[in-house]
Amino acid sequence: MKVVILSRNRKLYSTRRLAEAGEQRGHEIHVIDPLRCYMKLSTSRPEIHYKGEALEGFDAVIPRIGASITFYGTAVVRQFEMMGVYTVNESVAINRSRDKLRALQLLSRKGVGLPVTGFARAPDDTDDLLKLVKGAPLVVKLLEGTQGKGVVLAETRKAVESLIDAFRGLGANFLVQEYIEEAGGADIRCFVIGDRVHAAMLRQAPEGDFRSNLHRGGTATVIKLTPEERRVAARAARIVGLNVAGVDLIRSRHGPLVLEVNSSPGLEGIETSTGKDVAGAIYAFIEKNARPGRTRMRGKG
Predict the structure, then answer these.
(1) Residue 145: its pLDDT value, please?
(2) Which pTM does this prediction carry?
(3) How many Å is the maximal CA-CA distance in the chain?
(4) Tell me, which fold does domain 2-96 have in CATH?
């Protein structure tokens, strides 16, 4: 198969591993920077060009679209879809996952367990907003934040109000979310491929912090999931529409709660901590499912 990996940096662990795994399985792999792509919109024959040449004859696309280039990156993915190329994660699903509020609303509508979350804009809504989410301590999250950036734990009501005022002063969109104290600064990253969890790791925040992201100094160890945790993770990915996803869960007194669904989950932490060939499993999924024009979310917003 002829496969394109959309990535801005071929030296990143995830991109490198995907390229190596694809070549080991006999595929022709091309790593292409989506920002260097340009497109022809045509009713008869849409095209994508890269460095002066048309991108043709591809069987599958693996999007590794960074949050900072979501708009243009998903436009490139959508163009491949219009050309009939199979995309592992489709443009609509990537956009859903990047809009944290939208993703939480979709999960909430389907009855998936979530931390109680509030969203508001006007300053005079603060008092009632805090009542809705059970009061301090609370986690305040920027909607555009990634890898733990823009996520702050406010332990007192005064701290929450100060944070909200600061974010509103910046014109930023944010969520306030109940703090699950019993989790002890740990969450679970479930790597979902297709309709099941292929690998999972427990991420523990460093001492003095509550953010377990590995980029923020968290540690990762292998973990055995409960059947319920596996079902919740796979269902969350399916609701958002992702075939390959990193679903972050937190263990609470009420069972597993979904924190986030990531459309470009990193491979380094999960492969290192579990010893599993996650990149190879992604190709196994592609080999089974890739068909020309097989776009299951066409027309769904």
Answers:
(1) 54
(2) 0.86
(3) 60
(4) Rossmann fold (3.40.50)
